[in-house]
Amino acid sequence: MSTIGLYFLPTTSADTSPLPDLINRLTTRYNPSILPPWTLRQRLFRSTPAPPANSTTDGAGKITPPRYLQIVSLPDHPQNSFVAITPNESASTGEGSKTEPVATVISISSGPSTDEFNQLLGSKFGPLWQSRQILAVIDGSTYQIGDFRVRAGELRQGIGGAQLVRGVIAEVAYLGQDGQGEAKGSAERMITAFWQELGVQGVREFLSTGPGGRDDGFEDVRLWCRALMLKS
After folding, report:
1. pLDDT grade, residue 50 (50/70/90)?
2. Nearest CA to 167 among 227, 93, 105?
């Protein structure tokens, strides 16, 4: 299994995209091999707030933060989609410290099963989950550079013609080892160093190293879900 790092470059204006500059840096600094394009899709739902009279509190008079449900289709798993539910943010465990919630993930078959699940959310569970955003990358670019594979594409929000480019999402995968234990930490350091060599500024980096990881095969899915939780 490869080790990945994700990088989000937000747009600075409606008329410009960071993608051409990123592709130029990659192709100028390296001599990459071009691989087939890739796609990504995400639907984000937020739990419906309870009425004020029935709002659940955390014991200190504060309303409980919402939960989030994501349905994602990823390029490395064309046969499956993934449903990830992120619980409420944990209360502070100490002054100024918080435990990051860890999503519960299940896989479902792509195609009709995913469509049926979307319909079920809208027809039966609409009172519980509100649709928040739809994101997609269509025909993203893929490059092979030694032991690294780089995917990059414009992340668009919306459906049809009414789409907004939110920025560029890039995945850097290190393919040189199995990505377990100490080797995974070493691979992530190499991914970070690879990205820093490109000199791209204003980027948000997402790596899987840290507390809360689960050895259930869905670590990369959780990483994508974190990266796709865009701030409005």
Report:
1. low
2. 227
